[in-house]
Model the fold of this input.
Amino acid sequence: NAGVTQTPKFQVLKTGQSMTLQCAQDMNHEYMSWYRQDPGMGLRLIHYSVGAGITDQGEVPNGYNVSRSTTEDFPLRLLSAAPSQTSVYFCASRGNTEAFFGQGTRLTVV
Amino acid sequence: GESVGLHLPTLSVQEGDNSIINCAYSNSASDYFIWYKQESGKGPQFIIDIRSNMDKRQGQRVTVLLNKTVKHLSLQIAATQPGDSAVYFCAENRGTSYDKVIFGPGTSLSVIP
Done:
């Protein structure tokens, strides 16, 4: 049982490049979320999903897109990376209550 | 806008003492609260949760207290151990079905051996 798997673990992008952060869970959870965490800060909700085909914006959605074509996968897309998007990104998966987090993707935009 | 916040950004306690971490929230409609522990370089880990129809819930060495009158949440850790050193976050659910969880800024707990 892998839980929540995020790839890649580290990534360096140039300003303006695009990329997709992958998140997969094998617990058949309905709810999935993406957060970003800046140094010394809490987690801020980017986008979340309550099931396949359904997504919604969180606290800081600008510059990010998501889709949920399957229950298992919830990719986060950066269309045109900016230095302000340098952060650690966490994906979470939730059943009825308890959430499980991935190990994070450390993204640097130069 | 409405937010979840913490009273104390850092807390140092002696090993074996009890720790109390506080959290204030402002959204009176929030009905579910969660405490997470985050160790360096790792994702947050669920500790304990509480629904708004309760005022206290106990786990293994941890207790969460909820005071809806003053919109205050606390996490009590009994007999604090070095392994408890981490950043602790309170979070509240603002969605209709536990889907929109907003985190507070966090408290760093340091246990002195």
User: Anything to note?
Assistant: Chain B is about 0% helix and 55% strand. Chain B touches chain A at residues 32, 34, 42-46, 49, 89, 95, 97-106 (CB under 8 Å). The mean pLDDT of chain B is 89. The radius of gyration of chain B is 13 Å.
